[in-house]
Design a protein that fits this description.
The complex is a heterodimer of chains A (216) and B (104). By secondary structure, chain A is mainly alpha-helical. Chain A is 77% helix and 0% strand. Chain B is of the alpha+beta class. The chains are: A mainly alpha (216), B alpha+beta (104).
């Protein structure tokens, strides 16, 4: 009888360790919305920079040059305000090595893209295909690295789409490049982001009411 | 949380407490964690959690860092190398004991 009780206690301890490790690793952050937000932002920038011009001239430097910087800055502000609000509401999530690896890649990509596009634009070395090529190649790189860290096949598919877009930008006409770019934004930002949000919501629902150690 | 009396001499008594074991398991998955996050994950009270974390800190299994972020106090806990080693040894001992229990 005592042996059985002791064995049960040991099994309970082992289950407690497994449950707590699973609980600690459980992804509570939600990042799907950022893909959707940036997808809408890119699309809005294309529309704003295209107002009063044929679609093939959407990124022509002239009166429409402020469309991209304004949209990007506004999106950044929106994103940080939402993150700060959410962090205040639900408390800070602990940092993990994987989490830091993923967001450091995205931050580094954002800085690289900003510096390169700004310098190339000011230096007059940026045409429309090159713009799409740089953005798509960098997004391909970041999505691929992130998908390999997270072992997430769906994100790797997005990387393939972005790489294909970058290659296509070197061969297609300006109008076709624009169409391909818009299609990639729709697939890899809006559709993928929505899928991410749905997956995150499903995961949260699955873990609702998980007991802690006090009830273990 | 009351600690049940056990007759398991091979298991580290500092880690064997349910809440302390839960805390070390949680801390093994993250780099550092806030007091509030640990409290939410373990469904424990402030007093009990603080007392158990203090025991782990005294044993050298966790490190504590207190700081202010935007003028708000924040207490961060991280697992030390000896804490990680102790948890690994505890799990190994647990498996051995369970294996012996099954064979008996």
């Amino acid at each position: 009888m005592q042996d059985h009780t002791q064995e049960q206690e040991l099994t309970d301890r082992l289950s407690l360790i497994e449950n707590m490790i699973a609980e600690g690793r459980r992804k509570t952050e939600s990042w799907g919305w950022t893909f959707v937000l940036w997808g809408v932002s890119y699309s809005a920038a294309i529309v704003f920079s295209n107002i009063g011009a044929p679609i093939a001239e959407w990124s022509t430097y002239g009166h429409r040059e402020i469309a991209w910087p304004i949209t990007v800055v506004a999106t950044l502000i929106l994103m940080f305000v939402y993150i700060a609000f959410n962090s205040r509401k639900s408390g800070n999530q602990p940092e993990t090595t994987i989490g830091r690896a993923v967001y450091s890649i995205w931050i580094a990509m954002g800085i690289s893209m900003f510096l390169l596009l700004l310098a190339a634009g000011i230096g007059g070395k940026l045409d429309q295909q090159m713009f799409v090529g740089i953005v798509a190649a960098m997004l391909g790189l970041t999505n691929a690295a992130s998908s390999m860290i997270l072992k997430w096949r769906a994100q790797f598919l997005c990387a393939l789409v972005w790489w294909a877009t970058a290659v296509a930008a070197c061969f297609l006409t300006v109008a076709l490049t624009t169409m391909v770019f818009l299609a990639a934004i729709f697939l890899c930002q809006i559709v993928f982001g929505t899928y991410g949000m749905l997956s995150e919501a499903r995961e949260r629902k699955t873990h609702e009411g998980t007991p802690g150690a006090a009830h273990a | 949380m009351p600690e049940p009396a056990t007759d398991l001499p091979d298991l580290n008594p500092v880690i064997h407490g349910k809440l302390r074991l839960a805390l070390l398991s949680l801390l093994s998955t993250v780099e550092e964690a806030e007091f509030t996050w640990l409290r939410a994950k373990t469904n424990s009270t402030d007093g009990n959690l603080g007392a158990q974390l203090l025991k782990l800190e005294e044993a050298g299994y966790v490190q504590v860092e207190k700081k202010f972020v935007l003028r708000k106090p924040q207490t961060l806990y991280r697992m030390t190398e000896s804490g990680r080693k102790a948890l690994t040894e505890y799990v190994q001992a647990l498996k051995q004991l369970l294996g012996a229990a099954i064979h008996n």
